[in-house]
Structure formats: C-alpha cells, structure tokens
Write a structure and sequence with these properties.
- This protein has 312 residues and is an alpha/beta fold.
- The chain has nine helices and twelve strands.
- The strands form two sheets. A seven-stranded mixed beta sheet has the order 1-2-3-4-5-6-7. It has a five-stranded mixed beta sheet with strand order 8-9-10-11-12, covered by helices on one side.
- Helix 3 links the parallel strand 5 and strand 6 (115-117).
- It is globular.
Length: 312
Amino acid sequence: MKRWLPLAFLGVALTAAGADFDYRLRAERVADDVHVFVGKTEDFSPANGGNIVNTGFIVAPGGVIVIDSGPSRRYGEQMRQAIAAVDRRPLALLINTHHHPDHFLGNQAFADVKLAALPGTIEGIASDGNAFAENLYRLTGDWMAGTEVVVPKQALAGGRQEIAGRRLRLLALDGHTGADLAIYDEASGVLFTGDLGFLGRAPTTPHADVGRWLAALDTLEAITREPGFRAVVPGHGPVARDAAPLRQTRAWLNWLQMALRRSAESGLDMNETMAQPLPAEFAGLPVAASEYRRSVGHLFPAIEREALGAPR
C-alpha cells in the first residue's frame, strides 16, 4: 500500500497537469516583428501534449507569416490566439518547414489561411500524415482530440521572395528529412532552421541523410556570418544569438556517424551498438540516450551493410 499511494498521486498530478489542455503559449520576441513559441526539450508525453517544438511568426506589412503550426489542433488554435494578442493583422501565410508531426498537425486551426511547404514536404504530409497523427495520439493522449491532417496546397521553391511585403530568403535543403525548408528574414536577421538545427536537445533522425544534413548546416552557418545576422531559431531548443544550434547539431551528427561506423567495422551488432556509452560532451544532453538508441535503429543497418561490403 505504501508503494501504491505515491504512484496514484503521481497519476492524479499528471492528469491534472493536462486537464485544461492549455499549452500556455507565450510569444518570445526575438527581434522587431519576429516572435517564437519555444517548446520543451523533451520527448512527446501526456504531460507536455507534444509541445516540444519551436514555432514562430513574422509580422509583415501585409499580414502575419506563421512558421510551423505545432503538434495538434488545440496547439494551432491556441497559437492563433497568442499571435492575435501580439498583432491583430490577418494571417497571410503558414509555412511548414518539413513533414514531421510536431510541425504540421496544427494546420487544421489555420485551414482558412494559405498553407505552403516544399513539394517534398507536401508529399510527405499527404502520405504519412495520418499515421503520424495516430502515433502522436498514442504518445500524448487527448491533447490530440479532434486533430485531422490538413495538407498544404501551395508549393514553395528556394530563393528570395517577398511575402506580405516582407523579404524572405527561402532555403530549400534536405538531410533531416528529404525536404527541409529554412527561412531567413532579411529585415530582422533571424534564421529559422526548422529541424536542421537543434540546441540543448539531441537531434532526431527517423528520415535523416547525415551527409546531406551536414552540407545543409554548412549553408546555414554561412548565413550567420553575413552582416545583419541577429539570431538562430532552431526547430528544438532555445533561440541563439550565434551559430550554436548549427554547431551543436553538426558535432552530434559527426560523432554519431563516426560511432556507428566504428561499431560496424568492429563487428558489433545493433544491440551491442545501442549499449555503447555516450561521450561526456553529449551525456548530459536532454533525451540523448533515447535519441541515440533510436538513431542506431534508423542508421546502423545501412552503415553495417557498407562496412560488410554488401550492396545498398
């Protein structure tokens, strides 16, 4: 009985924490007319409702440009309310940076707004969106109630574009997924990296091509050396005033790739590789151990085949 009571109280506490389904979104000002909602550096859970992602918005002369919509319909609705508390201009465009669920499952709350993404992201949301939504429901529970997949219809291309009177540089990259859009607001010097950049949290790799991701990081870091650069908004983790998210992500990916190759070349199997300790540089990083194990599952089979000289 003594062991059962604390667990019961814990269950009540967790239920109460999410009972009002309030994400408590607060816009963080990054620069003039640029704001971010910073998520937790955690895994998906019923306690956080999937709020582990950074979303944001840019107030342009012709309306508000929204960057990613969060993990659920509830999040999207609360995001709209939080945006309106900052600026009452109409919403001009919502951009999904890539097709992972915490970045697009709030689209339903913006169904009256133009929704845009790279063609590969549109294809990924259309093909995988329902499976992602079902999985997120299993992970976060009733925070997802009423959430339906809404696929962007406007295809974006890389290059400089004026959107709602604001000059943006759209960078069509890949590596974290097959289509990753980064957005550089030239007026403010703020770079939104999507999930090409992580800070204070281990990166996720379910659709990663590490070599292409590293190349994308080089492209993004070059922007941080341009005159007028002011801040990096990573997909996960705090806003940085330098290239820290890009450097930390690069360091993790370089280590991960080297560690998996070393294991494969040493003849270790997947379970033995998962059991390898993390280096001190990353051991204290939130969710590092779990993301490392997931990454072994995602990436090791191909690296092992390469080490064995087998055809891909």
